[in-house]
């Protein structure tokens, strides 16, 4: 068998790392794949680290020690998030998207694999370095961006539902009050979905008064889990006082004017 | 500026293609990125094509002509799908997963970014080469694998809901009868979600009698769209006569024995 060339190894390793964000691969694994020495793989990783940095593809991180290895963090920097959210605002800011009752149609964006992946990666980047065990969302529209956030962080996603299904097994049910219009709603989650003592990140597509996020905080307490972050795609400027103190949004919405089909939507990044 | 080396170009192109399944990049795009000749990029692509094939990372396809370029198809071959579904069956086939009423708990698998990505890529591989405009699913549990199927195919996902929301705008509502227990349920979809004359692939996590898939076929007719394929993660052997004739499943479930917490679950691939 001919020796595998350096550019071949670099291509394969770059593809595998990119395809598996935040998964650690041991150097020994790649030694076996290419039948070569550890020092050779080490040199390859150094090249990959540099090119990922130079071409802003995210970062390649190495972990020392017995459980050590190399992994890909699809981190977007401030400028990349700003550019992406600016583009997104331009797409969202269209009169056709304003629907009766003053909401914005965003299904096509949230359900686009390309866009949801970028939103998820941007949201994951905002919580980079934080200890997170689960990415929690509530059905339905937030699921794709929560899944893509979970993919970027390589953590399991958990979906809170409004009604439980037979396949959920035993669930914890909770009533909560929506912040916007004071309606009573229910949310539920299988008892086995989250381990005690976990730290969770809540991801959703939209926040107005923050009632859902507040509900999730309360529900997490039933699981003896702690909410360590809240990230949303879009948040409204009003009401200013929301039911959760601390959250991050990619995009702000202000001055929705349904009658004139106008709104002010802008990136949260300058 | 120093000349970019071949192994650097191959690493960057491999990463970008992997990260964007079924998206065509022009060779000119990469020429600009690296400030080099088209013939150079052509040679790089040849190397990448070969290593992706050798290491079974999917296929690199080139498209000739004005709109031409190169793209990555994350195609799994028969053996890869078989190995993956065998592993999956081993994980699913555990007494703890059988919950009262004879259902199987799979939320943790469906909501895992790693596993849902593999399921989606496997399902996409089964419909490789077919003309598809949208990947359609019905809320809630099928969404992650449908999104990952849509990602592999680079097509938009559409989520049919049981109840419409304010943010859906105008919707088409349809009543349908579940195949398993003859209950009347509703499904709805925003009128703007699917263009007339589209071809859609329906993806779901589970099929028993096929009532949901049949409902989606009927709903698609309201949109003058055609269902060209049905793919599910798991299907039950019984009832043998399902409400849809033609579907593909990754895994079969047979002889569910709730009392003894036993089931027979096996890959659809030999």
Automatic annotation (TrEMBL), chains A, B:
Kinase keyword on record: no
InterPro entries: PRTase-like, PRTase_dom, Pur/Pyrimidine_PRTase, PuR_N, PurR_Bsub, WH-like_DNA-bd_sf, WH_DNA-bd_sf
Residues covered by the Phosphoribosyltransferase domain: 109-262
Source species, domain of life: Bacteria
Keywords annotated in UniProt: DNA-binding, Transcription, Transcription regulation
GO biological process: negative regulation of DNA-templated transcription; negative regulation of purine nucleobase metabolic process
A Gene Ontology molecular function term of the record: DNA binding
Ranges where the Bacterial purine repressor N-terminal domain occurs: 5-74
Self-association state and partner proteins as the record states: Homodimer.
Family in the record: Belongs to the purine/pyrimidine phosphoribosyltransferase family. PurR subfamily.
Xref: NCBIfam families: purR_Bsub
Protein name, per record: Pur operon repressor
């Amino acid at each position: 068998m001919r020796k595998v060339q350096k550019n071949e190894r670099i291509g394969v390793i770059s593809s595998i790392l990119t395809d598996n964000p935040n998964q650690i691969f041991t150097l020994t694994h790649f030694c076996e794949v290419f039948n070569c020495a550890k020092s050779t793989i080490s040199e390859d990783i150094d090249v990959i680290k540099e090119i990922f940095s130079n071409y802003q593809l995210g970062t390649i991180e190495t972990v020392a020690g017995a459980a050590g290895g190399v992994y890909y963090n699809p981190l977007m920097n401030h400028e990349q998030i700003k550019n992406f959210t600016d583009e997104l605002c331009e797409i969202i800011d269209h009169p056709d998207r304003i629907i009766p009752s003053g909401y914005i149609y965003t299904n096509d964006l949230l359900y686009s694999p390309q866009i949801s992946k970028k939103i998820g990666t941007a949201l994951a980047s905002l919580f980079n370095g934080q200890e997170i065990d689960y990415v929690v969302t509530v059905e339905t529209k937030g699921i794709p961006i929560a899944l893509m956030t979970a993919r970027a962080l390589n953590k399991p996603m958990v979906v809170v539902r409004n009604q439980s299904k037979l396949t959920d097994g035993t669930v914890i049910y909770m009533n909560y009050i929506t912040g916007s219009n004071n309606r009573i709603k229910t949310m539920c989650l299988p008892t086995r979905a989250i381990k005690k003592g976990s730290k969770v990140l809540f991801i959703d597509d939209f926040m107005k008064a923050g009632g859902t996020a507040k509900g999730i905080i309360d529900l997490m307490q039933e699981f003896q889990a702690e909410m360590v972050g809240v990230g949303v795609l879009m948040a409204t400027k009003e009401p200013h006082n929301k039911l959760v103190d601390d959250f991050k949004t990619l995009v702000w919405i202000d001055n929705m004017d349904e009658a004139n089909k106008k709104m002010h939507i802008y990136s949260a990044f300058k």
